[in-house]
Amino acid sequence: MSQAGIVNVMKETRVFPPPPEFSAKARIKSMEQYREMWQRAKDDPEGFWGEYAKELHWFKPYEKVLEWNEPFATWFKNGQTNVSYNCLDVHLNTWRRNKVAYIWEGEPGDVRVLTYEMLHREVCKFASVLKSLGIQKGDRVSIYMPMVPELPIAMLACARIGAIHSVVFGGFAAEALAERNNDAQAKLLITADGGWRRGKIVPLKENADRAMEKSPTIQKCIVLKRTGQEINMVDGRDLWWHELMKDASANCPAEPMDSEAPLFLLYTSGSTGKPKGVKHTTAGYNLYAKKTMEWVFDIRDEDVYWCTADIGWITGHTYIVYGPLSAGATIVMYEGAPDWPGYDRWWDIIERYKVNILYTAPTAIRTFIKWGDEHVEKHDLSSLRLLGSVGEGINPEAWMWYYEKIGGGRCPIVDTWWQTETGGIMISPLPGCTPLKPGSATFPLPGVVPEVVGEDGKPVPVGVGGWLVITQPWPGMLRGIWGDDERYKRQYWSDVPHKYLAGDNARIDEDGYIWIMGRIDDVLNVSGHRLSTIEVESALVSHPAVAEAAAVGRPHEIKGEAICAFVTLAEGYEPSDALRQELKNHVRQQIGALAVPDDIRFTTALPKTRSGKIMRRLLRDIAAGRETVGDTSTLEDYSVLARLRAGEE
Ligand code: WT7
Asked: How many CA atoms lie within 13 Å of 85's alpha carbon, on the beta-carbon side?
């Protein structure tokens, strides 16, 4: 990790104050109110969070709000609650019983609407199914599904009986699924025959079959019928969702769960090749999801809210499922691609359901810019009142387009910085009070105390880049990495003592605005998806033709970052376009489409230091077509650089 070469090229001076009508109705209406909340949460976190904890249902009251045994937090010690109860049951004795929870639209155009009552019933039934299959508290359940209502139903059913879910994004390949099944030692896999994407079937069950060959702990597999093509069902192992649900009991009370009982694992990339199972627990996560939903999106009962993420990522967990349901919101959920059947699918959805709040990613926005304004202009988007962005920094050009073309110049944009590990949004404008600067995630939420520090762990001066750290525990924080406390400590709590190291660079400007400046480690951000360079390299090296591989990111107009892989070949193999294509397919099969390099460059050697470390910094420069800046004195063989530059094949 190095802070060398961090330069700030953004000079953004525009400021957009919140519209007065927005502020008037918002929960947090002024910067004074925000500052007061923030200070209170910093000075007295237990008093602050203890008050909000009343909004959850407690089967048994907790004894202490926070016990901090660095780096392990216990929030709401010895209390008992249940996340599925807080998402569903709490609404049933209120007028929200018949309020719409999900408006779901499949890619082919099929629509389903589930009220809180209906969702509750489905969740109870599926929880009964899980119990009947012998799933118990603490068991791990892998979920590999398309974006259909049964996905949140499966998650909530796990939460209801205390099973720990591990959702694996449907775009991951069999290998990646097997790796996650095995690390979590999952007993059960829930999948579907397939899902729809750009009019084609994503063959989930086929992938699941291949994964299960290598997942010895999986005993049963529940299969939802979605796409209807012929699939392989293994007798005694594979069971149809609809058959299990036919006679399932709708009576399945939520199990009282300890505040710190694990709710889910979500695998994410770190700087090694092995994805880590980020562990989130019950009460603190639930409360954090609910409060950040209410503060950042200022969600109201009459709102229709749409988060376009896939539930396979943390954004979907917290802001399609647990946050909005806890807040009693009406949520739009869409299965498929944004360009199917036309480039205006999203705008059509917004117009038809009168979506008020849209939460999406910069990579999507840049794609829409490329597709052209005419697709947007065909639709009436006047229902929108608030826009959100997540996954990577939003460049000011994309921000302005989002603001003007989508928001009609009247909707605040909340640029939300957070991570799989943080459980919920950490740094973000509050739409009713924060004056926006395009490209800045602005200020920390109440309960979040960040600093930007140098390698000595001390805060850097205003305007200077450094490591972003969080100095106090917050309720949504990860509680560890599944099965690897040491890695948890090493990864987040060792480079800067007593502070959570987020892994991003940032700087704070003279007005206190935080600007996120990208990762400090070998983690790539491709279209808002996190990948480690080593994962891509391992996939490449597992092909017999590859001797050595180094993957780096290079700037990409749409994806933010694209993967460029430098490959040396094994004896007897020659560079060719056919081999290049074969290697791309191989990576697709090992990890998934999201990890396929845009460029594969064959070379006879990689630039290394004398101790044998690949000098990625140089490769990054070459991949980006930049002159190499900085120190090359540790390079072992200078001619390698010259040959790479010359584009040797
Ligand atoms: C990394 C976390 C949390 C949901 C999606 C990604 C980058 C995320 C922003 C933002 C600049 C951002 C960071 C972070 N990131 N949001 N608003 N501005 N960078 O979750 O896969 O855990 O990735 O995404 O680099 O560390 P994730």
From this structure: 18
- Residue 416 known to bind ligand: yes
Distance CA 77, CA 66 (A): 7
Give the model confidence (pLDDT) of 212-256 as tens digits. 999 999 999 999 999 999 999 999 999 999 999 999 999 999 999
519 annotated ligand binder: yes
What crossing angle do the helices spanning 174-184 and 204-213 adopt, rounded to 10°?
50
pLDDT tens profile 291-326: 999 999 999 999 999 999 999 999 999 999 999 999
Counting Cβ atoms within 10 Å, is residue 201 exposed (0-12), middle (13-18) or buried (19+)? middle
* 488-504: pLDDT as tens digits: 999 999 999 999 999 99
> Is 543 assigned to a binding site?
yes
Strand positions, DSSP E, 293-440: 304-307, 330-334, 357-360, 386-390, 413-416
| Ligand 1 interacting residues, C-beta cut-off 6 A | 268, 314-315, 390-393, 415-420, 441, 502-504, 516, 519, 525, 530
132: tokens are 């009947």
Q: What length is written for the chain?
A: 649
Q: How far apart are CA 171 and CA 594, in angstroms?
A: 7
- Give this complex's ipTM: 0.99
Query: What are the pLDDT digits (tens) for 434-471?
Result: 999 999 999 999 999 999 999 999 999 999 999 999 99
The Cα 157–Cα 590 span in angstroms is 30
pLDDT confidence of 7, banded at 50, 70, 90?
A: very low
Domains of the chain: 523-646 (3.30.300.30)
Distance between first and last Cα of the chain = 31
Residue of 395, 504, 513, 520 to test ligand 1 pocket, by largest number of atoms within 8 Å of CB: 504
Please identify, by atom number, the ligand 1 atom nearest to the C-alpha of residue 394.
18
- Tell the residue nearest (CA) to atom 6 of ligand 1: 391
Comparing 5-19, 162-176, 602-616, which segment has the lowest mean pLDDT? 5-19
pTM above 0.90, yes or no: yes
Q: Count CA within 13 A, CB hemisphere, residue 432.
A: 19
Q: How far is residue 424's CA from residue 404's CA, in Å, rounded to a whole number?
A: 27
3-state SS of 565-622 is: EEEEECCCCCCCHHHHHHHHHHHHHHCEHHHCCCEEEECCCCCEECCCCECHHHHHHH
The C-alpha atoms of residue 346 and residue 209 are separated, in whole angstroms, by 33
For 374-409, b/e burial (b = at least 16 CB within 10 A) is ebbeeeebebbbbbbbbbbbbbbebbbbbbebbbee
> What is the atom index within ligand 1 of the atom nearest the CA of 427?
17
Of 296, 334, 322, 309, nearest in space to 148 by CA: 334
